């Protein structure tokens, strides 16, 4: 009885990754060539936040009998870097040179150094969020135009720059990257009715290889999340080569691609109409019973639909799409009139490439086609005759129509403002590996 009941109760959705990425230490340190350009952690806007805060006049202190004469007249952010701390998180390092005037003839140069430990948490909405776990600012004097009492002047400078507020400003620096992190889980269109979404399953892991994030793919068809086939094997991110110079390594499981084509099938993307060069008169020369069905010469059309779910098989060096169709063959006058149907099993090699943040998938030459008669109103038809009549059309049209569906590409998991360059797509057994570099799009304004 318990076995029977278990079959009646719907299975819970199994949350397991089917793709992911590793942000390498090189990617974490990535910055564009211009020295004033943003780093991966924060952009020019982050430096502006520090400058504005440091140069803002402090709130008056009622305990002081006279206002402080220290004034910060220059702020130069020399270093703004983010490094990986294995098993822990990341460390943000900021060095700021301050020019401080305490009297018309006295200029003091100070260096403010900030070390902040960062890590990624998952908020209640399921989005990843960058947070600080520790922050330590230090201030030291570089040089002065005249001798001053270091104790009193240091105290005045501390009051002027409000060191305690600096760590709050570091937290504010994370607002912009956290906005970008939310875009990682945004839904992306594949076709007008089908969308893909990459859902983080847990907080990232930190290793010497980089920051590892595991993702689970969900698909929506006409706004409804569809149940995907269960992955036969768990997927885990393959470790990148230690000598790899790439900023990022993305990996997609075989199950990811099968789920993608399953979702497209659910959206009806592989229901296709194929116009044959044949007519009812030319077919009657091969199938004699055709003459009694059609008195006039009409064009012959194939209406194909999937009869079972597509499957993608990843082998070393190649990806194969297996598509299982049933084609209704009929004549078109005022209505479509089917006179026979056949099962069509197609194996087509897939070509994978990346443009910007999209994976471009295309079906190349078909490697194998099998035709078999499913039903007939014109008597028995041998498989050899089916191949003679319809194989050339199917071989040409099925890949072409698949490519029409896929021509827009499939968005890869990415963060807004970043694109992928120097991409190398490698197909391995059971997964596809995509090492690439990051490129931050220029911001205007």
From TrEMBL:
SMART domains: BPI2. The lineage of its organism: Eukaryota, Metazoa, Chordata, Craniata, Vertebrata. It comes from Tyrannus savana. This is TENP protein. InterPro entries: Bactericidal_perm-incr_a/b_dom (IPR017943), BPI_fold-BPI/LBP (IPR051660), Lipid-bd_serum_glycop_C (IPR001124). Residues 242-436 form the Lipid-binding serum glycoprotein C-terminal domain. One of its GO terms (molecular function) is lipid binding. It holds the Pfam family LBP_BPI_CETP_C. The gene is Tenp. It comes from the Eukaryota.
């Amino acid at each position: 009885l318990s076995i029977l009941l278990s079959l009646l109760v719907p299975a819970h959705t199994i949350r397991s990754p089917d793709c992911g990425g590793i942000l390498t230490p090189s990617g974490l340190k990535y910055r564009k060539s211009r020295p004033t350009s943003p780093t991966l952690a924060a952009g020019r806007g982050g430096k502006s936040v520090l400058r504005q805060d440091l140069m803002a006049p402090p709130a008056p202190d009622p305990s002081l009998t006279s206002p402080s004469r220290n004034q910060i007249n220059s702020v130069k952010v020399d270093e703004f870097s983010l490094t990986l701390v294995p098993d822990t998180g990341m460390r943000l390092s900021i060095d700021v040179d301050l020019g401080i005037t305490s009297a018309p003839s006295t200029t003091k140069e100070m260096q403010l150094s900030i070390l902040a430990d960062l890590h990624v948490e998952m908020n209640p909405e399921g989005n990843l969020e960058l947070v600080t776990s520790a922050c330590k600012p230090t201030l030291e004097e570089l040089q002065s135009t005249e001798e001053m009492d270091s104790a009193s002047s240091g105290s005045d400078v501390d009051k002027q720059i409000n060191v305690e507020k600096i760590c709050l400003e570091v937290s504010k620096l994370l607002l912009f990257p956290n906005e970008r992190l939310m875009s990682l889980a945004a839904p992306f269109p594949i076709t007008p009715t089908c969308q893909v979404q990459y859902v983080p399953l847990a907080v990232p892991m930190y290793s010497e290889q980089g920051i590892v994030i595991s993702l689970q793919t969900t698909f929506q068809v006409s706004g409804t999340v569809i149940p995907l086939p269960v992955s036969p094997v768990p997927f885990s991110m393959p470790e990148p080569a230690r000598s790899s110079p790439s900023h990022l390594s993305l990996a997609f499981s075989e199950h990811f691609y099968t789920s993608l084509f399953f979702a497209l099938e659910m959206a009806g993307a592989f229901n296709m109409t194929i116009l044959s060069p044949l007519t009812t008169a030319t077919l009657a020369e091969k199938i004699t019973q055709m003459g009694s069905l059609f008195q006039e010469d009409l064009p012959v059309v194939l209406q194909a639909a999937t009869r079972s779910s597509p499957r993608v098989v990843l082998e070393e060096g190649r990806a194969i799409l297996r598509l299982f169709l049933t084609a209704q063959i009929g004549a078109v006058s005022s209505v479509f009139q089917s006179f026979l149907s056949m099962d069509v099993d197609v194996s087509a090699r897939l070509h994978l490439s990346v443009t910007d943040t999209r994976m471009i998938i295309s079906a190349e030459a078909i490697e194998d086609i099998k035709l078999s008669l499913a039903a007939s109103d014109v008597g028995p038809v041998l498989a050899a005759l089916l191949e003679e009549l319809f194989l050339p059309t199917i071989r040409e049209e099925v890949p072409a129509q698949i490519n029409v569906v896929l021509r827009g590409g499939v968005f890869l998991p990415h963060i807004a403002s970043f694109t992928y360059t120097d991409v190398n797509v490698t197909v391995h057994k059971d997964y596809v590996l995509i090492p690439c570099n990051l490129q931050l799009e220029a911001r205007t304004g």
